Amino acid sequence: MIRIQITDGTALDDEALWVAGLRGDVDYIQVREREASARDLTRLVRAAMKVAPVLVNDRADIALACGAAGVHLRAGAIGPLEVKKLGPLVVSVSCHSAEEVAAAEGADYAILAPVFPPLSKSDAREPLGLEGLRTVCRGSRVPVIALGGITAANAAQCIEAGAAGIAGISLFRRRP
Length: 176
Hints:
By secondary structure, the chain is of the alpha/beta class.
């Protein structure tokens, strides 16, 4: 089971606290710090890489420059196959429907959300639920990672529904 910790966008508020909250027992840390400048993001990625392999949100250039494991692409970004031409990067893609998962050809992972109502932010999209997750997983050639409202109590249900793993902000947040 793949486990991805997604950062919460607070790194610039208190970088030491942010780093202390990173978990080394995950497969990847997805550095999702949208407000960070390229210089700050590079520093944060390098700090996170000392804890676990890193997927950099939207910035293949920074992932390559830092030697990160890969990149996470938001919906509508450059395609995974194009990113893979840049170098040996793991590529995950943000998806919200079966159609978006089908369009994620070439990605290593399709991060599908929301499965349940998110715990860390509001989301106007209707949660897919376990049946929706199961349907998408059955039809996907790309391994699906469940995101959105994932807890210790429902993570196993996501795997039973066919997900290759789980991702989250709240689920993996470590309180130093």
